[in-house]
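Run log, item B.
One chain of 137 residues. Sequence copied directly from the ordering sheet:
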Amino acid sequence: MTGSSDPPDIPGLSAGLSREEAVALRESFDDEERERIDRTVAELLDLLGKTHTMAVLSAFAFAEGPLRFSDLESELDVPPNTLSTRLRDLTDAGLLDRRAYDEVPPRVEYTPTEPAESLFPVFGHLHHWAIEYELSP
């Protein structure tokens, strides 16, 4: 992980780092680990930047349990083909688990994985930001 024998003291994800703390943490990693982290962040941002991905994840962040396609479809203003693609993208990325039940009619439920749940505080921070600020039109 780092060039020294002791790994850096990494705060929990909910710790909210200052800019200076984030820079110090980033600089504590060796070049190879920093490149891996940067690549992972870039891949995550690419995924989150796809149309409606943030809306889908936000629905899971505030849900109390698994969601079905129909739950998301009624809650979000997302075309069905796009919603289907985003659910597949999030499942392929390991952020959602998909469980199909052998029933008639078919039932499929999606649940967030641990990595997805660790992103959920971001949605709380964004909503808190929106309480205090507003983007100019």
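Observations after the first pass:
- Confidence is low (pLDDT under 50) at residues 1-7.
- The chain has six helices and three strands.
Flagged for discussion on Thursday.
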